[in-house]
């Protein structure tokens, strides 16, 4: 509702008193327009419920606000303090004491935005509504840009409130939904949700020239008879090479050692309209006894390489055939893949894995054979 109506319900103008009247007159003498926000000469409405010392305007690039001098800040503080003592009527604003009429707890991010502390959200949905509006007004005045609001599943009742105030869905996990709000004018500069999923496949061959292969329980009927290499998805915070070793172990019970990334495939608009990166890794077996994962795998075995490549689905598919050709070339030392190397970059100070090719200078054999 318009702030003017709110104050008319809470108290008459005569109850405000001359001091607050002077404050309102001096503080709301200008207009400002924000996306989805309408400001009157004396009251800020919609996304902001509190009178401000000044309603900042945004430049064309959306990143600069008008100056807020010391007296305006003092006026704003006085107005906020006065508002904190107001109790709602007819259940509209429950228990708006000073501890609840506040800016949401948040930390600044390195890009000029804020990340809301989801552990200290108001317990009452109505209180959350007004405090969220108050916070957006505050962050707008401060020249903030993006707002990140993480709502745990146990606070899911707050999701429609945030969406109504202009927040957008960013991504969701099992335990929470992440919403975002872009304050400046113009298109949002916040990064989109992850666009890719990452998969791995383990090409494991033993001293007998046998390939470790599986038949999956859940697959397209056209591939039900296909013997294929073990594959799966990378887990969160998992390296490509450790993911390949893990997937082989989970599906077949075989322990392996990572050698190289032989090749990788990139395809778009796959599951959930995401792009897909699939890394084929060559692994060395460290054990021989197969223990099948009954949940995913129908059967697993060691298959002679010549028999593996003669499967009709392998021979007739250009992608399958090329991958096998590359793996065979690697076995014959006519091809070198990408080995993993641990490095720390000064840009972020974090350890990372760089995959690259290392070859001896006097021949084409790969180091490490």
UniProtKB/TrEMBL annotation:
Instruction: State whether keyword Isomerase applies.
Output: no
Domain Nudix hydrolase, by residue range, is: 195-325
InterPro entries linked: NUDIX_hydrolase-like_dom_sf, Nudix_hydrolase6-like, NUDIX_hydrolase_CS, NUDIX_hydrolase_dom, Pre-Nudix
Q: Does the keyword Nucleus apply?
A: no
Keywords of the record, alphabetical order, are: Hydrolase, Metal-binding
A single Gene Ontology MF term assigned here is: metal ion binding
- Pfam families assigned: NUDIX, Nudix_hydro
What the entry lists under SUPFAM superfamilies is as follows:
Nudix
Q: Which CDD domains match?
A: NUDIX_ASFGF2_Nudt6 (cd04670)
Q: Which domain of life is it from?
A: Eukaryota
* Similarity section: Belongs to the Nudix hydrolase family.
Name the chain's protein: Nudix hydrolase 6-like
The record lists the organism as Trema orientale
């Amino acid at each position: 509702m318009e702030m003017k109506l709110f104050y008319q319900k809470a108290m008459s103008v005569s109850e405000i008193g001359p001091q607050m009247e002077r404050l309102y007159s001096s503080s709301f003498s200008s207009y400002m327009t924000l996306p989805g926000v309408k400001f009157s000469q004396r009251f800020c409405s919609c996304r902001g419920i509190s009178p401000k010392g000044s309603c900042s305007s945004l430049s064309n690039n959306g990143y600069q606000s008008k100056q807020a001098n010391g007296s305006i800040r003092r006026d704003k503080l006085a107005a906020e303090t006065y508002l904190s003592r107001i109790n709602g009527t007819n259940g509209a604003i429950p228990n708006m004491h000073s501890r609840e009429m506040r800016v949401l707890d948040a930390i600044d991010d390195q890009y000029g935005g804020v990340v809301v502390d989801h552990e200290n959200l108001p317990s009452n949905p109505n209180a959350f509504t007004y405090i969220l509006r108050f916070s957006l007004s505050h962050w707008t005045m401060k020249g903030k840009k993006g707002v990140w609001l993480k709502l745990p599943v146990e606070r899911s009742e707050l999701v429609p409130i945030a969406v109504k105030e202009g927040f957008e869905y960013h991504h969701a996990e099992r335990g929470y939904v992440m919403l975002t709000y872009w304050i400046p004018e113009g298109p949002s500069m916040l990064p989109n949700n992850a666009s890719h999923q990452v998969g791995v496949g383990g090409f494991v061959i033993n001293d007998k020239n046998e390939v470790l292969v599986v038949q999956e329980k859940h697959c397209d009927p056209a591939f039900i008879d296909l013997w294929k290499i073990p594959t799966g998805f990378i887990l969160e915070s998992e390296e490509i090479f450790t993911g390949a070793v893990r997937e082989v172990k989970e599906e077949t019970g075989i322990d392996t050692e990572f050698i190289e990334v032989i090749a990788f495939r990139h395809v778009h608009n796959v599951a959930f309209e995401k792009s897909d990166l699939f890394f084929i890794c060559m692994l060395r077996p460290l054990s021989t006894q197969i223990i099948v994962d009954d949940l995913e795998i129908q059967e697993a075995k060691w298959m002679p390489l010549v028999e593996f490549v003669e499967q009709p689905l392998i021979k007739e598919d250009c992608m399958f055939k090329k991958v096998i050709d590359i793996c065979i070339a690697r076995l014959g030392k006519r091809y070198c893949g990408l080995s993993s190397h641990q490095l720390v970059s000064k840009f972020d100070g974090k350890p990372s894995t760089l995959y690259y090719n290392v070859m001896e200078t006097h021949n084409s054999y790969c180091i490490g054979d």
